[in-house]
Amino acid sequence: MSLPSITTVYIYMHVGIDDLAIYVPKLYVDYKDFAIARGIEPQKLEYGLGIRKMALVDANQDPACMASNACLKLIQKNNLQPEDIGRIYIATESGLDESKAMNSFVIGMLEQVYGESSFEHAGGIECKFACVSGSYALYDNANWIRAEENNKKSAIVIVSDIAKYDIGSSGEYTQGAGAVAMLIKENPRLLTFDRKVASTIIKNEYDFYRPIGKETPLVNGNYSNLLYLIQVKKAFDSYKEKTIATGLISLKDGESITDYIDFFSVHLPYRKMGEKALIYLLRHEWRHLPRWKNVINEIGIQEPVQKDARGTIESVLSDTEFMKADEKFRRAFAKSTFYHEVFEKKMASSLEASAIIGNLYTASMYMGFRSLLEFEYKKKERDLDGKRVGFGSYGSGSSAMVFSGIIQPEYKDIVKQMNLEEEIGPRIRLSIEEYERLHGNGRNPDDSIIHPHKEFILMKVGGTTADKAGFREYNYAN
Ligand code: CAA
């Protein structure tokens, strides 16, 4: 007897970001005050780097508080119960302890609201790889759900950081603080991740790092800028190969993968870095296409080629003649109608939040994604349903991850409620003296500038006895 033929039908699980919530501290430094204090032209900050306000934590706040505040908002706005959540992951480069994970502090804070042991089933770890670790955490948690290890529960990935640089350093104007909590589940309302295309690149580098015990990083600024561009491009090359191999995107003659990405959301240490990343990517993707001739015709100068075939970052940066010519070309390309159209249509909205909050390290790209949704929706120019968002995540040290996802039909229900200014709330503009005092840890938690309500705050660090050294005490301020 012959068996009936069986057709196997694979139904792929759609996993992605269902909702997100943000927390931004309410203190900030204004770029004009900062520029005057440091003797910098304000235009450099506003136009050269795209910085208007830098968010700062108060004396009674730390990355764990911000993470808990964003997480609590996410849970409350979705009417979730602790048993709905199977994992809480935190990605940060502002770790508070060399051993104890930040999510244990967060669980402790959440249990002050939901009851003792209410989250004991929710596993998770603190992830570290500079600013890229949040993307790895999202990827791992999406796969945890795809593997059906989740017992029908959702995951929460929180990205939370304080970007703090030395006073007087060139990194000082790229500071900021904040957290984003994301709900990861099956059939998400905001964004479904494209399958089998997430791509990473990794290399041992010292562009930006923070040795143990040091509060601020050591930075090779220009090197880090170029490394960011190169690493994201390399990860993008691998993404491109995968999108073609899996059939996610089929390119016709003269087309670029970038034509199939409706929006770009990239790591944003400062607003202008987003523009730089897009310029770099488009130049790389377009220079071999027929359209490049039209671009060059409009710009009126040829793209310079570096003579040194070794092409190391050091050799590129030390080739002053090439760097000068390349800068000239980059500026001209940025003014071209070809670039301008893509920038306005696909990236500009994602940069709005960065200019008024500053660098959030791990949270920067996700704040950018949040910004993209809100400000693109407010334009009311087009329906975002079905549009592809391409993500370019970068972490110094260094690793990049490129992945993409599709905005889902239900996005409107969530995005129509977004209002960045309202969610941040009223803010206090600090004088430079106050900022420097906070920067130098000159205030204790009980001497904070703001006395918040309905927020987690840090009460105290370090117990009175040796066995409690390093203890961090938090409270939900009612
Ligand atoms: N008006 C308008 N623009 C002006 C200006 C003026 N008066 N004066 C200067 N500018 C422009 C410059 O022309 C330059 O523009 P381009 O980048 O387009 O050429 C821009 O302002 C920046 O000026 P500088 O080149 O003088 O740069 P800087 O010495 O101030 O350093 C920086 C900038 C390297 C980003 C520095 O702030 C830094 O080291 N930041 C920390 C490291 C960092 O953020 N690296 C980014 C990649 S690594 C990463 O992304 C991980 C992370 O989060 C840290």
Structure description:
With 478 residues, the chain is an alpha+beta fold. The chain contains 16 helices and 17 strands. The strands form four sheets. Strands 1, 4, 5, 6, 7, 8, 9, 12, 13 and 14 form a ten-stranded mixed beta sheet that branches. The chain is globular. The protein starts with 14 loop residues before the first strand and ends with a strand. The mean pLDDT is 95. It binds acetoacetyl-coenzyme A. Acetoacetyl-coenzyme A binds next to α2 and α6.
- Find the count of extended strands (DSSP E, 2+ residues): 17
Bound molecules: acetoacetyl-coenzyme A
Work out the radius of gyration: 23 Å
Low-pLDDT regions: none
Helix count equals 16
First-last Cα distance: 74 Å
Q: Provide the structure class.
A: alpha+beta
Portion of residues in beta strands equals 15-25%
Oligomer: single chain
Largest sheet: 10 strands, mixed
Average pLDDT level: 95
- Please estimate the helix content: 25-40%
Please tell me what the overall shape is: globular
